[in-house]
Amino acid sequence: MKAYFGSIQELSFEISKLINHKNIYMVFDQNTLEYLNTFESVITQNIKYLIIPSGEENKTLDNVTKIWDFLNLNHAKSGDYLLIVGGGMTGDLAGFAASTFKRGIKFILFPSTLLSMVDSSIGGKTGFNYNFIKNNIGTLSYPEAVFYDVNFLNTLPKNHIISGLSEVYKHSIIGDRTLWDYLKSNSRQLDYNYIIERSHNLKSKIVDIDPHENNIRKKLNFGHTVGHAIESFFLNEKQPLLHGFAIAKGMIIESFIAKKEKILNDDDYQEIRNILSKYFSSYIDFKIKTNSLIRLMKFDKKNTSEKINFSLPKSIGVVSINYEIELKKVESYLLEFYEND
User: Fold this and answer.
1) d(Cα 177, Cα 37) in Å, to the nearest integer?
2) What's the rounded Cα separation, in Å, for the pair 26 and 44?
3) What whole-number distance in Å separates Cα of residue 177 and Cα of residue 175?
4) Structural domains of the chain in order of their starting residue, each with its CATH number
5) What is the DSSP secondary structure assignment for residue 57, as one 8-state letter?
6) Model's pTM, two decimal places?
């Protein structure tokens, strides 16, 4: 997968070279349609486009079908390109539609949120939510290229920026102590180009070694076993929570579990908890009944009816994978965490 860093205008040559003489279709979400003129200024071909609603509650089969219908109506062929401009939900959804239409057409991602830039645009995971379970249906399909333009971030609400930073913090905890120290010292004035490129390099290196998540790619699941259960809970309640906030809470809880299992020392746990609790503060000030979390964690494909599979930190910058804990033990840890939260 090729990655390019810079503005759409600066990278116009690279875009034109990739899509040379191909039919171009585009998917925007309602937040990125304003960039249509920018793309029309750098792409010489006639652009046919579709707008889909943004937001996790719209990551559905109905919207996948809308994309399939759009491609079918316009007689898209396997050699054509789908350009996807939007956040993580849009990229996952439209990437899935592209990967399955006519057994797969090529697609290019233009992530427009910090979360999609540092996480979902890297690694090839596409899909949609089904039966109120996060990413219940999906494929592993890689884009031809990803273009990172930080100018998209200028129009993002503050809470979306903060949500996106949770995955940057995760990358620092699982394998980049230098990035963790940078985030601690510069949280009020971040260099987005620096943290995006650093996150991209770390995740890409892991994915290149283990594309099918058989081994070290499982490091990336830190915070997500509990985090996805939290996200699914709020989705089920029809009160969608931004992904990054669910993961931030998930990282704190899973770090507590690591401490209880005596694989993470108390100093590192307290540092993780204090930094994440302070940065995400009111966004993660919620409690969920332990039995609801356990029920939803059981849906995770990594888990069995008796054990939960975690990726847990051993220290800041090092994570342990395939760490299985008995269900009853996990339940007791969750109860203890919430008693003191």
Assistant:
1) 41
2) 14
3) 6
4) 2-155 (3.40.50.1970), 161-340 (1.20.1090.10)
5) G
6) 0.91
